[in-house]
């Protein structure tokens, strides 16, 4: 039997303002509230519980059945009503349940979750991100707090974008980051956004001479670094063979692979990764040459 390899994704949750305890409290506020995810699939989080200094819970994904929609008689390949098929579905029952563990690491506001569980079922990072954005919509619409969710990218995701040989355009969507104590760049960016009453900043650079391409300076790279973890960065241009290139940091989500056999359970694996993993926060790139 082949070894089961778990895939663990990472989301970055930010709140402004962010008093002590805000992140587990935010997850408690949205726990137990189903939200449409895709098609007839719905998603809900269980309430996080304190676990070895972290906060762990489950992401539940299921399919809602429409009792008025026809079913299929697979032997005849004909439509049939659920009533004629003698199928009764209680309105409180969802089907095709998929369960994924999650862990909130409060110190750097990261959420680790099973992107591929031990049954081989998948929960794409961008799907979970968008579902959480829906769940936080009501909180954000009140106006007293802004909550943002972003997919953490691979460490070299921004390098891939900036390494486009002839960079024709560079688009940066920068959401207000949390100023971590060891991240002076993020603190400075947040201060500038706060001064201007802004929650996000959009930047687009276009090469003056396409054949030469863009040469981002240190300031642009600092903003791109922050945006790769708090928003996204997209670049377009040409490669060495003059073929068109269009890359975004969103295309390279951070995925951590772990053999299930090394842990007592998938939930324990996610917890251990959340305790030990060093994620992102790369600073100090030199401008590309």
Could you explain how this protein is built, in words?
The chain is α+β, with helices and mostly antiparallel strands. It folds into 2 domains: 171 residues, no CATH class; 95 residues, no CATH class. It has 7 helices and 15 strands. Strand 8 and strand 9 form a beta hairpin. The longest helix is centred in the middle third of the chain and has 12 residues.
Walk me through the topology.
Elements: E1 5-16, H1 22-30, E2 35-38, E3 41-45, E4 49-51, E5 54-63, E6 71-73, E7 78-80, E8 95-105, E9 110-116, H2 125-135, H3 137-142, E10 146-151, H4 157-162, E11 166-175, H5 184-195, E12 200-206, H6 218-229, E13 231-238, E14 244-248, E15 255-259, H7 266-276
Antiparallel strand pairs: 1-9, 1-10, 1-15, 2-3, 3-5, 4-5, 5-8, 6-7, 8-9, 11-12, 11-13, 13-14
What descriptive keywords fit this protein?
2 domains, 289 residues, 9-stranded antiparallel beta sheet, 23% helix, 4-stranded antiparallel beta sheet, globular, single chain, alpha+beta
């Amino acid at each position: 039997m082949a070894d089961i390899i778990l895939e663990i994704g990472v989301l970055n949750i930010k709140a402004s303002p962010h008093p002590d305890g805000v992140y587990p409290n935010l997850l408690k506020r949205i726990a137990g509230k189903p939200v449409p995810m895709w098609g007839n699939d719905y998603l809900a989080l269980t309430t996080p519980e304190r676990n070895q200094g972290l906060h762990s819970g489950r992401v539940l994904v299921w399919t809602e059945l429409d009792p008025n929609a026809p079913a299929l008689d697979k032997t005849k390949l004909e439509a049939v009503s659920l009533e004629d098929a003698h199928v009764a579905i209680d309105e409180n029952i969802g089907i095709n349940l998929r369960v994924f563990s999650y862990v909130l690491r409060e110190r750097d506001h990261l959420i680790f979750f099973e992107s591929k569980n031990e049954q081989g079922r998948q929960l794409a990072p961008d799907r979970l991100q968008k579902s959480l954005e829906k769940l936080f919509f009501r909180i954000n619409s009140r106006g007293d707090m802004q909550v943002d969710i972003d997919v953490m990218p691979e460490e070299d995701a921004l390098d891939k974008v900036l390494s486009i040989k002839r960079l024709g355009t560079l688009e940066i969507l920068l959401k207000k980051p949390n100023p971590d104590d060891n991240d002076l760049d993020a603190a400075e960016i947040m201060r500038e956004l706060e001064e201007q009453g802004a929650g996000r900043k959009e930047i687009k650079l276009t090469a003056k001479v396409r054949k030469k391409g863009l040469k981002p300076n240190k300031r642009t790279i600092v903003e791109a670094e922050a945006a790769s973890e708090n928003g996204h960065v997209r670049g377009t241009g040409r490669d060495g063979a003059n073929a068109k290139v269009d890359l975004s940091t969103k295309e390279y989500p951070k995925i951590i692979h772990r053999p299930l056999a090394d842990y007592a359970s998938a939930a324990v694996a996610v917890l251990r990764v959340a305790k030990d993993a060093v994620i992102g926060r790369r600073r100090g790139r030199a401008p590309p040459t």
